[in-house]
């Protein structure tokens, strides 16, 4: 599988990464190298091997359901660009 | 052309845990903005999620309640999208391997026209995920306000198969699901506060066509009424579009309760490329048999089982049993009333009738009913043993509603005790017959109506304190 320039544009847009036109070709090449690596791995015979969802063979740790986190709003909002009435303010978003 | 409607529902049930799904911040509703957030919820760099055991347990409960498969291994995935109420840039959800799969619910459908019927709705899956924060679009100098208290609240997203064929079926399914999640104590079911929200996938196709039509998804319906209105509007809209020669484009729409219309939110092609992948912060969730067995042992009797038991144990009709098991609290109230000595069918009639009606008028739940089961039971006993008639009982109930007095106290206080001495009733009837000789003649000449008039006269003379059945019987005998 290899990516077209349009694929690269689309992926960049979805990831909210600004890729300029003159960076496109280089990005495409880099991404395609990654796909090449994946193709190589795919060629390995994995019959009978159970797929893993995590790189380590560990299981999820669970914690008891207790609400212990303190309120640190003042501290965190002190470094936020804009706040009002306890809310973080962000550029207007409307669907 | 005849059209068939196809509906599938996605329901987000907020799990009633103390803390969030991946952090120790509180989930309590209504706190001051952003006071219930932890490092994970506001996505500080390096903060790691730690799974809440209770959220998993509640998912297991749900799986057991609907006869589903509980996956021994399930996986959390990142669903990537950008929105300011989701500071991480992704929602932690489950994609390929959800915690619960399959299962089914039997629903009772009451269509606007025609007979009620039962139907089985199959479930595709139920998965654990985190909720996003809230965006407040009021005017903050042209900016949007973000409250992250809700961010990270545990949700169980319950996805049905596209099995429903009308708004009535969709509503019946949503109500059945609501009843289950509240019954097994995994969700408080509060729809105003957003604890139970429905998304409806709606499409139409010509009757007989195998393939589904293109669907549109109506988002965030937070009442059964809106669910019904939104689907009915959407169905009419889609049929009109197709009949006018337009194609339906897959889209997400919002329902506006003020206009009763759905309107487009976004087209689905681009924005919905979520690029799911397994979350490297969270290894697979493993659930062993011992855990499932323990949860099974802690499950309450489920509504369907309880319904069947009510029918056999109390000998009440299916309709009564279904109504009384609409909620756990109502069922408990009924059982307590019968346990306190009330006749099972009379108890059912009074609870479904007067008690429910009065609670509705006062917008109260059964838990807030001022008449305790024991007091109701005594009143019903007094109807059964003919101390009072139904009409007086309604007064007694009303007075009990407003005071802590018992039925016996109120019967004595208001002199409601019915005459049970048949000798006294006979004497009273003799008096009435003597005073209404003309009516007696009419009856004897074949006018059945005159009999009712005589009964009326007797009841009047008895000031309502003679049991009508006894009066009827004696009167018949005397007029013989």
UniProtKB/TrEMBL annotation, chain A:
Extract the NCBIfam families matched here.
gatC
Family assignment from sequence similarity:
Belongs to the GatC family.
Reactions catalysed, semicolon-separated, are:
L-aspartyl-tRNA(Asn) + L-glutamine + ATP + H2O = L-asparaginyl-tRNA(Asn) + L-glutamate + ADP + phosphate + 2 H(+); L-glutamyl-tRNA(Gln) + L-glutamine + ATP + H2O = L-glutaminyl-tRNA(Gln) + L-glutamate + ADP + phosphate + H(+)
GO biological process, any: regulation of translational fidelity
Entry-linked SUPFAM superfamilies: Glu-tRNAGln amidotransferase C subunit (SSF141000)
Report the protein's function.
Allows the formation of correctly charged Asn-tRNA(Asn) or Gln-tRNA(Gln) through the transamidation of misacylated Asp-tRNA(Asn) or Glu-tRNA(Gln) in organisms which lack either or both of asparaginyl-tRNA or glutaminyl-tRNA synthetases. The reaction takes place in the presence of glutamine and ATP through an activated phospho-Asp-tRNA(Asn) or phospho-Glu-tRNA(Gln).
In Swiss-Prot or TrEMBL terms, this protein is called Aspartyl/glutamyl-tRNA(Asn/Gln) amidotransferase subunit C
State if ATP-binding is listed as a keyword: yes
Alphabetized PANTHER family for the sequence: GLUTAMYL-TRNA(GLN) AMIDOTRANSFERASE SUBUNIT C, MITOCHONDRIAL
Keywords tagged on the record? ATP-binding, Ligase, Nucleotide-binding, Protein biosynthesis, Transferase
Q: Which organism is it from?
A: Formivibrio citricus
MF-aspect GO terms: asparaginyl-tRNA synthase (glutamine-hydrolyzing) activity; ATP binding; glutaminyl-tRNA synthase (glutamine-hydrolyzing) activity; transferase activity
Gene it is expressed from: gatC
Keyword Transferase on this protein? yes
Q: EC?
A: 6.3.5.-
Oligomeric state and interaction partners are given as:
Heterotrimer of A, B and C subunits.
Taxonomy of origin reads: Bacteria, Pseudomonadati, Pseudomonadota, Betaproteobacteria, Neisseriales
TrEMBL record, chain B:
Write down the superkingdom of origin.
Bacteria
Q: Which reaction does it catalyse?
A: L-glutamyl-tRNA(Gln) + L-glutamine + ATP + H2O = L-glutaminyl-tRNA(Gln) + L-glutamate + ADP + phosphate + H(+); L-aspartyl-tRNA(Asn) + L-glutamine + ATP + H2O = L-asparaginyl-tRNA(Asn) + L-glutamate + ADP + phosphate + 2 H(+)
**InterPro entries reported for this sequence:** Asn/Gln-tRNA_amidoTrfase_suB/E, Asn/Gln-tRNA_Trfase_suB/E_cat, Asn/Gln_amidotransferase, Asn/Gln_tRNA_amidoTrase-B-like, GatB, GatB_C_1, GatB_Yqey_C_2, Gln-tRNA_amidoTrfase_suB_CS
Q: What is its EC number?
A: 6.3.5.-
A Pfam family matched in the record? GatB_N
Sorted alphabetically, the Gene Ontology BP terms of this entry are: glutaminyl-tRNAGln biosynthesis via transamidation; translation
Broadest EC class assigned to this enzyme: ligase
Entry GO MF terms: asparaginyl-tRNA synthase (glutamine-hydrolyzing) activity; ATP binding; glutaminyl-tRNA synthase (glutamine-hydrolyzing) activity; transferase activity
* Record keywords, A-Z: ATP-binding, Ligase, Nucleotide-binding, Protein biosynthesis, Transferase
Residue span, Asn/Gln amidotransferase domain: 332-479
The text of the family note is: Belongs to the GatB/GatE family. GatB subfamily.
Q: Which HAMAP family match?
A: GatB
Function field: Allows the formation of correctly charged Asn-tRNA(Asn) or Gln-tRNA(Gln) through the transamidation of misacylated Asp-tRNA(Asn) or Glu-tRNA(Gln) in organisms which lack either or both of asparaginyl-tRNA or glutaminyl-tRNA synthetases. The reaction takes place in the presence of glutamine and ATP through an activated phospho-Asp-tRNA(Asn) or phospho-Glu-tRNA(Gln).
Q: What quaternary arrangement does the UniProt entry report?
A: Heterotrimer of A, B and C subunits.
Q: What is this protein called?
A: Aspartyl/glutamyl-tRNA(Asn/Gln) amidotransferase subunit B
């Amino acid at each position: 599988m290899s990516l077209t320039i349009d694929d690269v544009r689309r992926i960049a847009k979805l990831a909210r990464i600004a890729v300029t036109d003159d960076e496109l070709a280089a990005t495409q090449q880099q991404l395609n190298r990654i796909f090449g690596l994946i193709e190589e791995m795919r060629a390995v015979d994995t019959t009978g091997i159970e797929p893993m969802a995590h790189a380590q063979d560990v299981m999820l740790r669970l914690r008891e359901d207790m609400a212990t986190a303190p309120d640190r709003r003042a501290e965190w909002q002190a470094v936020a660009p804009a706040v009002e009435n306890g809310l973080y303010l962000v550029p207007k978003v409307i669907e | 052309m005849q059209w068939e409607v196809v509906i599938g529902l996605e329901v987000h049930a907020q799990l009633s845990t103390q803390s969030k799904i991946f952090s120790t911040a509180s989930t309590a509703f209504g706190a001051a903005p952003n006071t219930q957030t932890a490092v994970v919820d506001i996505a500080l760099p390096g903060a790691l999620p730690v799974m809440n055991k209770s959220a998993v347990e509640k998912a297991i409960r749900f799986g057991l309640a609907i006869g589903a498969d509980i996956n021994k291994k399930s996986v959390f995935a990142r669903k990537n999208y950008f929105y300011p109420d989701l500071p991480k840039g992704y929602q932690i959800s489950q994609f390929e391997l959800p915690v619960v799969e399959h299962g089914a619910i039997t629903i009772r459908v009451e269509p606007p026209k025609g007979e009620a019927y039962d139907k089985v709705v199959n479930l595709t899956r139920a998965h654990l995920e985190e909720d996003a924060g809230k965006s407040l679009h009021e005017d903050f100098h042209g900016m949007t306000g973000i409250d992250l208290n809700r961010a990270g609240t545990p949700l169980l997203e319950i996805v049905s198969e596209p099995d429903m064929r009308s708004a009535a079926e969709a509503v019946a399914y949503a109500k059945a699901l609501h009843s289950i999640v509240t019954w097994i104590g995994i969700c408080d079911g509060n729809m105003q506060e957003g604890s139970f929200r429905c998304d409806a996938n709606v499409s139409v196709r010509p009757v007989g066509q195998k393939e589904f039509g293109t669907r549109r998804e109506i988002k965030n319906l937070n009442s059964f009424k809106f669910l019904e209105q939104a689907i009915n509007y959407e169905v009419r809209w889609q049929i009109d579009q197709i009949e006018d020669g337009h194609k339906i484009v897959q889209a997400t729409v919002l329902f506006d309760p003020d206009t009763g219309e759905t309107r487009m939110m976004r087209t689905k092609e681009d924005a919905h490329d979520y690029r799911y992948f397994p979350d490297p912060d969270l290894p697979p969730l493993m659930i062993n048999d011992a855990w499932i067995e323990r949860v099974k042992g802690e499950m309450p009797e489920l509504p369907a089982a309880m319904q069947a038991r009510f029918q056999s144990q109390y000998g009440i009709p299916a309709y009564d049993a279904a109504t009384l098991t609409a909620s756990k609290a109502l069922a408990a109230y009924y059982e307590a009333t019968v346990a306190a000595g009330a006749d099972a069918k009379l108890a059912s009639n009074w609870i479904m009738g007067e008690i429910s009606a009065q609670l509705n008028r006062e917008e109260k739940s059964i838990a807030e009913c001022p008449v305790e089961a024991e007091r109701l039971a005594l009143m019903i006993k007094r109807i059964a043993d003919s101390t009072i008639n139904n009409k007086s009982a309604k007064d007694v109930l009303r007075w009990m509603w407003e005071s802590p007095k018992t039925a016996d106290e109120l019967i004595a206080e208001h002199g409601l005790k019915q005459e049970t001495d048949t000798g006294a009733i006979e004497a009273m009837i003799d008096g009435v017959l003597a005073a209404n000789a003309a009516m007696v003649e009419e009856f004897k000449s074949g006018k059945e109506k005159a009999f009712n008039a005589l009964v009326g006269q007797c009841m009047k003379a008895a000031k309502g304190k003679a049991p009508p059945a006894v009066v009827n019987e004696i009167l018949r005998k005397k007029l013989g």
